[in-house]
Task: inverse folding
């Protein structure tokens, strides 16, 4: 039985040794792996942008006046009942109606002064009317004298000089009558002006006469983009009322970093996405020569350049887009239909060179690579790797040359 105890102890020691060996034996480090592939690749400048209408027309008040409410209830000023998004036709659709302004309120002193002026003009009119009547009487008398002189001159009863004097007197009185009547019209106009200056709000309802109003029509065919003055009120000449634009005349404005803008040019292809619909195609039309400073969301001042982009796809594909909508643009700098690429997440620096950890017989092997073009997801491989090679993504400090690795199991 002694040999049985010895065998039992030996077996127990072997089990313990195997357990210790199992615990201390190096295990493969779990990693994420990716393959080197051959396929299309492009390098782009990516940034947020916004849509913008090329031509926006602002309807302004041509003269100072009272603007009627634009978004009127049904049955009230129906010819100016407009809302944002309504269609308008150039030269036909009435977009605003202006009425003459009501006179202002008078203070006590101004009223007393104007009433005195009005009384003076009434007296002047009375005086002018009396003068007209006086001259009319003189003219009637001179005409009677002229008729008698003509009758006597026909029988040579008076000299010809007396006839000429009667004729002159009648002509002078006729001219005086015309002058007096003109003077009366002047005084009557002064009286009307004095009475008009005494008018106050409500004395004359100008809106009752439709001919007194100015109706503004749409300057272009499109839709109402914005109503700047919706309620009824008095506007000064030149005050903006509303904006009109054609939603089909849309472009994209991107404020690119100046270091990116110098790498692109007019005609560069653009991919547009993240606007709520399928990706769209565009084309760079203009890069403005004047940059400007802009503070980023992180508080960093950046120099940017305004870049204009045309939509290449037909309007039916992006009809849901409007003015000042947010989009993301990807401006192409370089592209290839077939090139060897490796994920950027696999690259790390080894001295002055780029390197990756390639999977070789279950172990990580540090491999120097030469890369060309690079974007946010992948890099062009010029040498060091071949199609189908497997590399480690996001290598940690646990991985060195020769470390056993294995594909991480995703639960």
Result:
């Amino acid at each position: 039985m002694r040999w049985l105890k010895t065998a039992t102890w030996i077996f127990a020691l072997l089990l313990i040794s195997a357990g210790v060996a199992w615990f201390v034996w190096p295990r493969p480090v779990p990693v994420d792996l990716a393959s080197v592939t051959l396929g299309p690749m492009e390098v782009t400048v990516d940034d947020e942008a916004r849509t913008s209408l090329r031509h926006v027309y602002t309807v302004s008040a041509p003269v100072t006046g009272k603007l009627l409410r634009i978004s009127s209830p049904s049955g009230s000023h129906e010819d100016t009942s407009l809302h944002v998004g309504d269609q308008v036709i150039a030269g036909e659709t009435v977009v605003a109606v202006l009425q003459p302004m009501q006179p202002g309120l008078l203070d006590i002193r101004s009223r007393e002064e104007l009433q005195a002026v009005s009384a003076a003009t009434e007296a002047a009119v009375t005086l002018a009317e009396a003068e007209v009547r006086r001259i009319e009487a003189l003219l009637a008398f001179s005409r009677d004298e002229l008729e008698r002189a003509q009758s006597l001159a026909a029988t040579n009863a008076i000299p010809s000089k007396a006839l000429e004097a009667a004729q002159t007197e009648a002509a002078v009185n006729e001219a005086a009558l015309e002058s007096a009547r003109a003077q009366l019209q002047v005084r009557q106009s002064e009286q009307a002006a004095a009475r008009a200056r005494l008018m106050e709000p409500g004395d004359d309802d100008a809106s009752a006469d439709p001919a007194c109003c100015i109706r503004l029509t749409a300057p272009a065919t499109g839709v109402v983009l914005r109503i700047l003055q919706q309620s009824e009120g008095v506007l000064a000449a030149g005050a903006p009322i509303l904006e009109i634009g054609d939603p089909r005349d849309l472009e994209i404005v991107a404020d690119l970093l100046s270091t990116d803008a110098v790498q692109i040019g007019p005609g560069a292809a653009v991919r547009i996405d993240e606007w709520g619909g399928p990706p769209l195609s565009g084309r760079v039309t203009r890069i403005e020569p004047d940059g400007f400073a802009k503070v980023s969301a992180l508080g960093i001042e950046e120099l940017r350049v305004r870049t204009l982009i045309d939509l290449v796809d037909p309007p039916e594909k992006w009809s849901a887009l409007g003015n000042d909508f947010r989009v993301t643009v990807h401006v192409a700098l370089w592209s290839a239909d077939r090139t060897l690429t490796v994920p950027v997440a696999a690259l790390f620096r080894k001295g002055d060179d780029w390197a990756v950890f390639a999977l070789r017989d279950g172990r990580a092997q540090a491999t120097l690579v030469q890369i060309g073009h690079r974007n946010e997801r992948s890099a062009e491989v010029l040498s060091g790797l071949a199609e189908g090679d497997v590399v480690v993504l996001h290598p940690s400090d646990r991985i060195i040359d020769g470390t056993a690795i294995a594909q991480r199991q995703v639960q």
Q: What stands out?
A: Residues 108-154 form the longest helix (47 residues). Residues 74-78 have pLDDT under 50 and may be disordered.
